[in-house]
Design a protein that fits this description.
mainly alpha, 349 residues, 14 helices
């Protein structure tokens, strides 16, 4: 039987915790914009779009029907904010609980306490209350500020869509359809990203505490990414990096990276992210990296690690995101963007 990978083990347990804590909240948020008064306002917007089309006019941001939709959307989004706050507390706790199981299971797979004792190894479990006290995103000022922006941010994106429809010359039906899609999908999508990040970052923070509690038997940790088509190039580049015990694995929003803690006398070998990427087909590489960056990488002008950019988030502290080719190469990137346009015009072999 094939053994599950580290990322499979982590994903299975974390996904279960996320599903249990987030499903009801996400269902309620999705329903709040597809039923009730918002659904009625969206129908009215459809009728207004038909009227505007018949008289040759555009849908503008100050249209009274659109303004009525946004006015009714505000209290709905504020209620969703309260739902989001409650669910985030549960997800933070779920991430903390998962760390208690996963850090040990990944470091010492399949070994119980008796088997560890035979190797003169003891695994320490830190006090759960102490862990809860140290992982405290849902009580931070940054967290409260982020939640306070949930409703205004969604409304601003929808309002900007109306502006875009004018500047790009959309007819009112197309504009109304896009506003409908955003109104129904965006609140749940933004909530899901935030809740998932709370859970995953809480898991990584709590993992640090479990590692430190066992620093006498651990030597280092290896960063592990979920290597697939969805993995950003920053995470690909950092996959396989060795870090000291007790250093958090920083990631981006929705990031799925974790680590394997190495036990003294039991070294682990992990293929680097760059080796994994180099073994992919050219089409897969171009799709994941982008044509311009792919050209620069193939010619040795771009190191994949140049795309791993650190930044500070007001809720989660230091995070990592995928940077741009311009950020990595400066003015030299322009030539690669030009060549990429030429490359895309050619049929792929």
């Amino acid at each position: 039987m094939t053994q599950p990978s580290t990322t499979d083990v982590v994903r299975r347990l974390l996904d279960r915790g996320y599903e249990q804590a987030a499903r009801t909240t996400l269902t309620a948020i999705a329903s709040s914009t597809s039923e009730g008064p918002i659904a009625q306002r969206l129908l009215e917007l459809d009728v207004e779009a038909q009227r505007l089309l018949s008289v040759g006019q555009r849908l503008t941001p100050d249209n009274p029907v659109l303004r009525a939709l946004l006015a009714d959307l505000d209290p709905v989004l504020r209620q969703n904010t309260r739902r989001l706050a409650l669910a985030s507390e549960d997800l933070q706790a779920a991430g903390i609980r998962a760390s208690a199981t996963l850090v040990r299971e990944i470091a010492l797979p399949g070994l119980n306490d008796q088997q560890l004792a035979a190797f003169d190894i003891r695994w320490n479990q830190p006090d759960p209350e102490a862990v809860n006290a140290l992982v405290s995103y849902t009580t931070s000022a940054g967290y409260r500020d982020e939640l306070s922006q949930y409703s205004p941010r969604v409304q601003e994106i929808i309002r900007n869509q109306a502006v875009r429809s004018i500047t790009e010359g959309w007819n009112p039906l197309r504009a109304a359809n896009e506003i409908r899609r955003m109104t129904q999908d965006l609140p749940a999508a933004q909530a899901a990203t935030f809740m998932r990040t709370v859970q995953l970052t809480s898991y990584r923070d709590a993992s640090v505490i479990h590692q430190v509690a066992n620093a006498d038997i651990l030597t280092s940790q290896i960063r592990i990414a979920a290597l697939d088509d969805r993995t950003c190039m920053a995470c690909v580049a950092l996959h396989g990096t060795r870090l000291p015990i007790g250093e958090r694995i920083d990631d981006h929003h929705n990031g799925r990276c974790t680590s394997i803690a190495e036990v003294r006398g039991r070294p682990r070998e992990v293929r680097s992210g760059e080796d994994w990427f180099s073994a992919r087909t050219e089409d897969q590489q171009r799709e994941q990296l982008g044509d311009a960056a792919w050209l620069a990488w193939k010619e040795g002008k771009l190191n994949l690690r140049d795309l791993a950019v650190r930044y500070d988030d007001r809720v989660f502290g230091q995070m990592i995101r995928e940077g741009s080719l311009s950020g990595a190469l400066g003015d030299a990137a322009a030539e690669y963007y030009r060549r990429a346009r030429d490359l895309r015009s050619q049929p792929r072999s």
